[in-house]
Amino acid sequence: QCKDQKTWLGSSLNDICKGKGIWSFSVSPVIPSKYHSVLYQLPVNLSTPPKPHVPTQTLHWDEDYVRMPYSFSNVFPVVENGINTLKSRWKLILNIFSKPINSSREFEAAISKYNKNLPRFSALHNYFDEIPESEAHDFFTNCLPNIIKLALRLPDILPGNLPLLKRGHCKSLSLSQLQVSSLLANAFICTFPWRKDMMHYPGVNFSVLFSAESSYFSEKLKCIIYYFKRVTNKNPTGVITFERKHISRTNMPRWDNLENNLGNTKIHVNSSGTIEDDGLGFLQVDFANKYIGGGVLGYGCVQEEIRFLICPELIVSRLFIEQIGDSEAVIITGAERFSNYTGYADSFKWSGHHQDLTPHDDYGRLKTTISVIDATHFSRPKDQYYPSAILREVNKAYVGFSSRERDNLAPVATGNWGCGAFRGDPNLKSLIQLMASCAAGRDLIYYSFGNINLKDDFYNMYLFLANNRISIKLLWNFLKSFSSSSVSHENLYSYIQQSFFDSKHQPSIKNYFSRKLLPEIPS
Ligand code: AR6
Q1: What φ, ψ does residue 377 adopt, rounded to 5°?
Q2: Ligand 1 nearest atom to the CA of residue 447, by list position
Q3: How far apart, in whole angstroms, are the C-alpha atoms of residue 148 and residue 182?
Q4: In this predicted complex, what is the ipTM?
Q5: Does the annotation count 63 as an active-site position?
Q6: Bridge partners of 331?
Q7: Measured between alpha carbons, how far is 51 from 54 in angstroms, rounded to an integer?
Q8: Model confidence over 178-237: pLDDT tens digits?
């Protein structure tokens, strides 16, 4: 699109921000409680990294907490002089990394001494075989030793228990950015022990990435290495909150009962821009996998993976966030963006330094809030129109968009959620997200990712809904009946219009399946 051409329809961003600016929206507080573990000392001053919270309990080694690699319980059996004994794995790790590592093969060999069942680091070897020797030398003499140092400081940086955010429980966890960096450094050297009871956690050790050969492997690695260069050069001083949300079936909205007019929600639909570049200050949606981060540490390089690569602090969530259930979402506040990028999927490229100028909130977090919601993967796209499928998606979006705060909520910045790898229909998903944001009391900013027809059609549909004061309940009923009609899926919007006229006993509009007729909005 031409630079000067207006690429958006609907309310201006200034209007949506009520003229007060994008940083004016309310944020959830950081108050330690039974439901919010804060693992650093308050208050946060942002001139130095916050000190760790002094633990009052001994370190847990059970299914409710992250098993820390430095725990006394992290042992392995050996036979010495014919006697079975248990040795500390952390001591072994300290010993192994007391010697320099000069190549990726030495790196793999070192890790395999304390982490059995490693895949071969073939992608990593290829990478170092191909880059100039001077770059590899710089990595093994500067960058890797700094990562290792940061990893081995974990007992001082994070001496306390790190609770797991488990399925079905509403719970928050706040960590300092320094604590996150040390956890990620441990993930890089693959120190986290794996247990059977972690089966439903995505896993954070980087061994999977090092083995996953793909066209974008080197670009992923560049993002990660660049992150470590930044945080080891200057320790970050802010903090991040990870919140797991669950809404029980009985507390979910009754979509067939909600009288809210969809037109009460303001929308801004833009065919240009992205959530991460243009959604500053808004509730930014991560088009997630139920295993948070999706293929970031393996195969896959689309919206979620890219977001996690440019904001690598998000990756740490894979350590403690169990598989996300249907009525759950994760909200992450404060993750910093470190890198820029170009391209997408196979053409994805790291493109260097990003200075994140987002201001901090009163609690020391960057005012960047990400709502992690996983759409359904429709291997048979026609399944998405069944009422049960629509219900699952609208409930999911509602969990991700709703808030305990009532006033001054940031608008949702979203787009074709579930409509790429997961094969959803953007015409349907845009309406589902409109219903969810309307019920949650947020305005909606929709990036159609270059799709001009979608921008026009969705906006015209919205105008139709708004001008006719159509409620969530009525739209829900139209959507519910769609799958049993004989109308083809491309004509969903026309079907809704026609259903409305039918409900009013008004004559049908001529040719109502033609897109050209959509702008014919009754005033
Ligand atoms: N901003 C706005 N819109 C975007 C952006 C962006 N930065 N990037 C992509 N889009 P997809 P899904 C649009 O496929 O279908 C991952 O592996 C673009 O139109 O990432 O929900 C996850 O881990 C794109 O086609 O999301 C899951 O496993 C569409 O959004 C799975 O993919 C959908 O992006 C989720 O797949």
Answers
A1: -85, 110
A2: 2
A3: 9
A4: 1.00
A5: no
A6: 243, 371
A7: 9
A8: 999 999 999 999 999 988 889 999 999 999 999 999 999 999 999 999 999 999 999 999
Residue 29: partners with Cβ closer than 8 Å, 6 or more residues away: 363
Contact indicator for 327, 252 with CB cutoff of 8 Å = yes
Classify burial at 145, counting beta carbons within 10 Å of its beta carbon; exposed 0-12, middle 13-18, buried 19 or more: middle
Q: H or E stretch including 452?
A: helix 452-467
Using CA atoms, how far apart are residues 242 and 30, in angstroms rounded to an integer?
11
Q: Which residue has the tokens 């790190």?
A: 162
CA-nearest residue, atom 8 of ligand 1:
303
Closest CA relative to residue 441, chosen from 416, 472, 467 = 472
What is the rounded distance in angstroms from the CA atom of residue 242 to the CA atom of residue 369? 10
Write out residues with Cβ below 6 Å of ligand 1.
Answer: 274-276, 287-289, 294-295, 300, 302-305, 375, 415-422, 447, 449
Give the number of C-alpha atoms closer than 13 A to the C-alpha of residue 41, restricted to the C-beta side. 11
Ligand 1, atom nearest to 275 Cα: 1
The protein residue with its alpha carbon nearest to ligand 1, atom 6, reads 274
Between the CA of 53 and the centroid of ligand 1 the distance, in Å, is 37
Q: Can you read off the two tokens belonging to residue 178?
A: 């320094």
Tokens 């001008």, located at residue: 467
Supply the pTM of this predicted model: 0.96
Distance (Å) from CA 416 to ligand 1 centroid: 7
